[in-house]
Amino acid sequence: MRHLREPFRIIRANLGAYLAMNAVMFGLFFAGVAAALAFPDLHAAQITSMEQDGTADLVGELLGNVWLFGLTILAVNVLTVAVATILLPSMIVPFAGIVLFAYRAFGFGLSLAPVDATAAKILIPHSLTILIEFQAYVLVMLGAYLLGRAWLRPASVGADTRRQGYLRGLGQLGRLLPPALALFVIGAAYEAFEIIYLVPPLLLG
């Protein structure tokens, strides 16, 4: 129970930062949506980029196996985005991962914008995926913020040196990762299910 209570304690103690991370995440996402609706070529370019880097082909190959598809989604969300984009850069340069992730959040909006009837239908079941996975990213971003703050201002975590502050910031980050991972797992499972089983009937209807 202690492991369940601790992340909520950290969120309550840093509620302003948590809300700010939500504002960044959803604000940039909806900015991307607005940009795609205003300038459809941006959406087209984003989709073309996904096709060229092999993302679209990979999705097509995995559609026949919901479990493998879910594991792939989980691996991409955790390793490529959460770890490589947010965590590792933030462990080297304070807050760097939050800045880098801002571009991805905007890109999510560009690619998922309801630019036509098909995209709008897909967004109906996919909205739940967005809510779940975005909250996972918010927790990782909050952890990166707390690490950077403790690193630059050791006194904020009761530390005397930046090294002590860094280590205590890592401790706070580590406590937020298990619930973030749980959300990533739930989000990946639902995303695989909705893409394979919920979206096709909507597009045929």
Structure commentary:
This protein has about 200 residues and is mainly α. About 90% of the residues lie in helices and about 0% in strands. Helix 2 runs parallel beside helix 6. The longest helix is centred in the last third of the chain and has 43 residues, at about 160-205. The radius of gyration is 18 Å and the shape is elongated. About 30% of the residues are buried.
Chain-wise SSE layout:
Layout: H1 2-13, H2 15-38, H3 40-52, H4 55-62, H5 66-92, H6 96-112, H7 117-152, H8 162-204
Helix pairs in contact: 1-2, 1-8, 2-3, 2-6, 2-7, 3-6, 5-6, 5-7, 5-8, 7-8
Q: How far do the termini sit from each other? A: 46 Å
Largest sheet: none
- Estimate the global geometry from the Cα principal axes: elongated
| Percent of sequence in beta strands | under 5%
Radius of gyration: 18 Å
Could you estimate the helical fraction of the residues in percent? Answer: over 70%
The helix count comes to 8
Protein name: Stage II sporulation protein M
Keywords: Membrane, Transmembrane, Transmembrane helix
Transmembrane segments: 68-88, 95-114, 134-152, 173-199
Organism: Nocardiopsis changdeensis
Fill in the keyword field for this structure.
205 residues, elongated, membrane, Stage II sporulation protein M, transmembrane helix, transmembrane
Short account of what is shown:
The chain crosses the membrane at residues 68-88, 95-114, 134-152, 173-199. With 205 residues, the protein is an all-alpha fold.
